[in-house]
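The following record pairs a protein chain with its ligand, PPS.
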Amino acid sequence: MDTDTYLLNFKGFNFERTLVDKDLLENLEDFEIRDDDVFIITYPKSGTIWTQQILSLIYFEEHRKQTRMMETIDLAPFLEYNIRNMDFLRRPDPRLFSSHLPYYLVPNGLKNKKAKIIYIYRNPKDVMTSFFHFSNWVVVFEASKNMESFMQQFLDGKVVGSLWFDHIKGWYEHRHKFNILFVSYEEMKKDLRSVVQKFCKFLGKELSEDDLDTVVKQATFKNMKADSRANYDDIITNEIGKRNNYGQFLRKGTIGDWKNNFTVQQSERFDIIFQKKMKDIPLKFIWDINEE
Ligand code: PPS
């Protein structure tokens, strides 16, 4: 099968073909936004399901106390992907959403600073590593023979989410139109408590110290892996489908796994492209767990 079998290109952006509904995409720009809506926006493999868990824990007491067993995909569903049938209009406020959309395809109502957006970004060598393993695991993504061929695909933007550079640059350069907070996966990894506090401040939510501790505890990699509400095991089995039993949504959850997957030459090639494309973007990137 070729790339087009897996990807649906809509207005220049690649979607996963089987999980998306073209009619819904056609109508996205008119989707009505409410003031209280909160969007988690990411390029794939940058920390989406982690942030779904964190916001679900911040917003829903039943989730924090584990008295309601709703999955995070239902608490912060994807706007553009039909993974679960969500009746968005009937959901009570505040509504949480997740999305991989580029800035130019989001509902018009989000512009002019209506609602809130948390944009999570991750160093793209780790994004690419995570994406490579994920694509080889799930049936709805195109598998690659090796890292070299995946790297070519990734750098050509022939993947779900299109070109990583376009996604982050588009969002960053148009940030003034949106009420948006940029946070990196690596900041979350290094100091989750501070990031949860930063989220709460941005969202206007107040948590007690005990609740803050609970959020941080339940959002660790180890605890999320064991939490059926947050580990996506059910979604893989019932909605997405896997090729083998070797993968996991929560695969490694580290900073710097690219070093185990890139050759020196691939890394240097990537660095040259990164420096050229990102020279005007002052966002901080962390490539190594020991970096300050
Ligand atoms: S997706 O498919 O786009 O929704 O994937 P996404 O959730 O954006 O990214 C998956 C990667 O996030 C890691 N992850 C975590 N890392 C650290 N701590 C926690 N709690 C956590 N939850 C998810 C997950 O392991 C994937 O990264 P890799 O490098 O593949 O392990």
